Amino acid sequence: MMKFKPNQTRTYDREGFKKRAACLCFRSEQEDEVLLVSSSRYPDQWIVPGGGMEPEEEPGGAAVREVYEEAGVKGKLGRLLGIFEQNQDRKHRTYVYVLTVTEILEDWEDSVNIGRKREWFKVEDAIKVLQCHKPVHAEYLEKLKLGCSPTNGNSTVPPLPDSNTLFVTAAQTSGLPSSIR
Protein backbone atom coordinates (compact mmCIF):
# COMPACT_ATOMS: atom_id res chain seq x y z
CA MET A 1 0.00 0.00 0.00
CA MET A 2 1.21 3.54 -0.77
CA LYS A 3 0.19 7.10 0.01
CA PHE A 4 1.40 10.04 -2.01
CA LYS A 5 2.70 13.34 -0.64
CA PRO A 6 4.27 16.05 -2.76
CA ASN A 7 7.65 14.66 -3.89
CA GLN A 8 7.30 11.64 -1.61
CA THR A 9 5.72 8.21 -1.70
CA ARG A 10 4.95 6.54 1.61
CA THR A 11 5.02 2.76 1.73
CA TYR A 12 3.23 0.56 4.25
CA ASP A 13 3.54 -3.09 5.18
CA ARG A 14 0.63 -5.55 5.35
CA GLU A 15 -0.22 -4.53 8.92
CA GLY A 16 -0.52 -0.84 8.03
CA PHE A 17 2.82 0.27 9.48
CA LYS A 18 4.76 2.93 7.59
CA LYS A 19 8.02 1.36 6.42
CA ARG A 20 11.02 3.39 7.56
CA ALA A 21 14.79 2.95 7.72
CA ALA A 22 17.45 4.69 9.81
CA CYS A 23 21.12 4.44 10.72
CA LEU A 24 23.05 4.97 13.89
CA CYS A 25 26.01 6.75 12.28
CA PHE A 26 29.24 6.26 14.20
CA ARG A 27 32.51 8.16 13.85
CA SER A 28 34.48 4.92 14.17
CA GLU A 29 34.04 1.18 14.60
CA GLN A 30 34.36 1.69 18.38
CA GLU A 31 30.76 2.99 18.23
CA ASP A 32 31.33 5.51 21.02
CA GLU A 33 30.29 8.69 19.14
CA VAL A 34 27.04 8.88 17.19
CA LEU A 35 25.89 11.54 14.73
CA LEU A 36 22.49 13.14 15.35
CA VAL A 37 20.70 15.65 13.13
CA SER A 38 18.31 18.45 13.92
CA SER A 39 14.65 17.65 13.41
CA SER A 40 13.06 19.25 10.36
CA ARG A 41 9.87 19.82 12.35
CA TYR A 42 11.54 21.01 15.59
CA PRO A 43 15.01 22.41 14.67
CA ASP A 44 16.13 22.70 18.31
CA GLN A 45 15.68 18.93 18.87
CA TRP A 46 18.06 16.15 17.84
CA ILE A 47 17.04 12.92 16.09
CA VAL A 48 18.56 9.81 14.51
CA PRO A 49 18.64 10.29 10.72
CA GLY A 50 16.10 8.17 8.89
CA GLY A 51 12.86 8.24 6.95
CA GLY A 52 10.36 6.47 4.79
CA MET A 53 11.24 3.70 2.38
CA GLU A 54 10.48 4.17 -1.31
CA PRO A 55 8.50 1.52 -3.23
CA GLU A 56 10.68 -1.49 -4.12
CA GLU A 57 13.54 -0.13 -1.96
CA GLU A 58 15.42 -2.48 0.36
CA PRO A 59 15.68 -1.36 4.01
CA GLY A 60 19.50 -1.08 3.92
CA GLY A 61 19.43 1.01 0.76
CA ALA A 62 16.76 3.27 2.21
CA ALA A 63 18.79 3.75 5.40
CA VAL A 64 21.91 4.75 3.44
CA ARG A 65 19.89 7.14 1.22
CA GLU A 66 18.19 8.80 4.21
CA VAL A 67 21.50 9.32 6.02
CA TYR A 68 23.01 10.87 2.90
CA GLU A 69 20.02 13.24 2.50
CA GLU A 70 19.55 14.17 6.19
CA ALA A 71 23.07 14.01 7.63
CA GLY A 72 25.31 14.46 4.59
CA VAL A 73 27.44 11.42 5.36
CA LYS A 74 28.46 8.25 3.57
CA GLY A 75 29.86 5.15 5.16
CA LYS A 76 30.09 1.43 5.55
CA LEU A 77 26.69 -0.13 6.26
CA GLY A 78 26.95 -2.64 9.07
CA ARG A 79 24.55 -4.91 10.88
CA LEU A 80 20.79 -4.57 11.27
CA LEU A 81 20.37 -3.56 14.90
CA GLY A 82 16.65 -4.36 14.95
CA ILE A 83 13.21 -3.40 13.74
CA PHE A 84 11.48 -0.96 16.03
CA GLU A 85 7.76 -0.24 16.14
CA GLN A 86 6.09 2.95 17.24
CA ASN A 87 2.37 2.55 17.85
CA GLN A 88 1.20 5.58 19.82
CA ASP A 89 0.73 8.55 17.51
CA ARG A 90 2.05 7.02 14.30
CA LYS A 91 2.30 3.44 13.18
CA HIS A 92 5.95 3.20 12.11
CA ARG A 93 8.12 0.14 11.66
CA THR A 94 11.75 1.23 11.38
CA TYR A 95 14.71 -0.90 10.28
CA VAL A 96 17.71 0.45 12.18
CA TYR A 97 21.24 -0.23 10.93
CA VAL A 98 24.71 0.61 12.16
CA LEU A 99 26.83 2.71 9.78
CA THR A 100 30.49 3.62 10.19
CA VAL A 101 31.02 7.06 8.64
CA THR A 102 33.79 7.28 6.04
CA GLU A 103 32.91 10.57 4.32
CA ILE A 104 31.37 13.81 5.60
CA LEU A 105 30.02 16.29 3.04
CA GLU A 106 30.46 19.98 3.72
CA ASP A 107 27.07 20.85 2.21
CA TRP A 108 24.27 18.35 1.80
CA GLU A 109 20.66 18.29 0.62
CA ASP A 110 18.92 19.03 3.94
CA SER A 111 21.52 21.56 5.13
CA VAL A 112 21.01 23.60 1.97
CA ASN A 113 17.22 23.16 1.63
CA ILE A 114 16.03 23.36 5.25
CA GLY A 115 19.07 24.38 7.30
CA ARG A 116 19.41 21.01 9.04
CA LYS A 117 22.34 20.72 11.46
CA ARG A 118 24.34 17.69 12.60
CA GLU A 119 26.46 17.04 15.66
CA TRP A 120 28.53 14.20 17.16
CA PHE A 121 27.47 12.98 20.60
CA LYS A 122 28.94 10.47 23.01
CA VAL A 123 26.46 7.57 23.10
CA GLU A 124 25.43 8.26 26.73
CA ASP A 125 24.80 11.94 25.95
CA ALA A 126 22.82 11.06 22.80
CA ILE A 127 20.56 8.76 24.84
CA LYS A 128 19.84 11.60 27.30
CA VAL A 129 19.15 14.09 24.50
CA LEU A 130 16.81 11.68 22.67
CA GLN A 131 14.88 10.42 25.72
CA CYS A 132 13.09 13.76 26.14
CA HIS A 133 11.36 13.99 22.77
CA LYS A 134 12.31 10.86 20.75
CA PRO A 135 12.28 7.96 23.23
CA VAL A 136 12.08 5.38 20.44
CA HIS A 137 15.32 6.78 18.99
CA ALA A 138 16.91 6.51 22.45
CA GLU A 139 15.86 2.85 22.45
CA TYR A 140 18.00 2.23 19.37
CA LEU A 141 21.09 3.24 21.34
CA GLU A 142 19.95 1.40 24.48
CA LYS A 143 19.66 -1.79 22.41
CA LEU A 144 23.12 -1.19 20.98
CA LYS A 145 24.52 -1.02 24.53
CA LEU A 146 22.70 -4.24 25.49
CA GLY A 147 24.98 -6.54 23.58
CA CYS A 148 24.82 -5.70 19.92
CA SER A 149 28.39 -4.52 20.16
CA PRO A 150 30.71 -4.79 17.16
CA THR A 151 32.48 -7.75 18.77
CA ASN A 152 29.48 -10.07 19.18
CA GLY A 153 29.88 -11.58 15.70
CA ASN A 154 26.53 -10.27 14.44
CA SER A 155 27.97 -8.30 11.55
CA THR A 156 25.93 -9.63 8.65
CA VAL A 157 22.91 -7.75 7.42
CA PRO A 158 19.98 -9.95 6.44
CA PRO A 159 18.36 -8.84 3.18
CA LEU A 160 14.85 -9.10 4.63
CA PRO A 161 13.55 -9.82 8.13
CA ASP A 162 13.05 -13.45 9.02
CA SER A 163 11.37 -15.19 11.92
CA ASN A 164 14.37 -14.35 14.14
CA THR A 165 14.11 -10.58 13.61
CA LEU A 166 13.56 -8.63 16.80
CA PHE A 167 10.61 -6.27 16.97
CA VAL A 168 10.68 -3.77 19.82
CA THR A 169 7.71 -1.58 20.65
CA ALA A 170 7.75 1.48 22.87
CA ALA A 171 4.95 -0.11 24.90
CA GLN A 172 7.16 -3.14 25.65
CA THR A 173 9.96 -1.05 27.15
CA SER A 174 8.31 2.14 28.42
CA GLY A 175 7.68 0.83 31.95
CA LEU A 176 11.10 -0.72 32.40
CA PRO A 177 14.05 1.04 34.00
CA SER A 178 16.60 2.12 31.42
CA SER A 179 19.16 -0.31 32.88
CA ILE A 180 16.96 -3.23 31.78
CA ARG A 181 15.84 -1.87 28.39
Automatic annotation (TrEMBL):
- State the GO CC annotations: cytoplasm; nucleus
User: Which terms are listed as keywords in the entry?
Assistant: Cytoplasm, Hydrolase, Magnesium, Metal-binding, RNA-binding
Q: Does Protein biosynthesis appear among the keywords?
A: no
**Domain Nudix hydrolase, first and last residues per copy:** 18-145
What cofactors does this protein use?
Mg(2+); Mn(2+)
Q: What InterPro entries does the database record attribute to this sequence?
A: DDP-like_NUDIX (IPR047198), NUDIX_hydrolase-like_dom_sf (IPR015797), NUDIX_hydrolase_CS (IPR020084), NUDIX_hydrolase_dom (IPR000086)
Which Enzyme Commission numbers does its entry carry? 3.6.1.52
Q: Name one GO biological process term.
A: diadenosine hexaphosphate catabolic process
Q: Which PANTHER family match?
A: DIPHOSPHOINOSITOL POLYPHOSPHATE PHOSPHOHYDROLASE, DIPHOSPHOINOSITOL POLYPHOSPHATE PHOSPHOHYDROLASE 2-RELATED
UniProt family annotation: Belongs to the Nudix hydrolase family. DIPP subfamily.
Tell me what this protein is called.
diphosphoinositol-polyphosphate diphosphatase
- What phylogenetic lineage does the species belong to? Eukaryota, Metazoa, Chordata, Craniata, Vertebrata
